[in-house]
Amino acid sequence: MSSNEVNARSIEILLVEDNPGDARLTIEAMREAKMSNRIHVVEDGVEAMQFLRREGRFGDAPRPDLILLDLNLPKKDGRAVLAEVKADPALKRIPVVVLTTSRAEEDVLRAYDLHANCYVTKPVDLAQFMKIVAQIEEFWIKVVVLPKG
């Protein structure tokens, strides 16, 4: 098996996004990239942590290989989710890509202080949004070697 085959394997992605339109566009962009990844969507920070800890209705949830995390979420915001994920020994190695509308320098700094793996601002332009999501997927699936479990 070549290194490209290993790096191009199908992965589990957790998308934490409360905006149904952005979630739909993200899923569509990933489908257009023709990669066979499984995308799971939760709409708030509480559900994100339940999914990651396999609690309640998420008892049989797969462990994600990658988390795409919005910062501005209901119930528990993305900053709190990021802090919990990176403080949990069972979850801290899962790469977290912050994918948000916020361009505020304080949000960028705080996300990296909380050990986000990267910070991407959602573009307003639809075509650019689709391109950026495809690039995120391309990089994290084909280029980066992700930790196993």
Automatic annotation (TrEMBL):
Task: Name the UniProt key words of this record, in alphabetical order.
Answer: Phosphoprotein
Domain Response regulatory residues, every copy: 12-137
Q: Which SUPFAM superfamilies match?
A: CheY-like (SSF52172)
| 4-aspartylphosphate: residues bearing it | 70
Q: Which CDD domains match?
A: REC_Rcp-like
Please indicate which superkingdom the organism of origin belongs to.
Bacteria
Q: Which SMART domains does this chain map to?
A: REC
User: Which Pfam families does the record match to this protein?
Assistant: Response_reg
What InterPro entries is this protein classified in? CheY-like_superfamily, Sig_transdc_resp-reg_receiver, TCS_response_regulator
Among the record's GO biological process terms, what is one? phosphorelay signal transduction system
Q: What is this protein called?
A: Response regulator
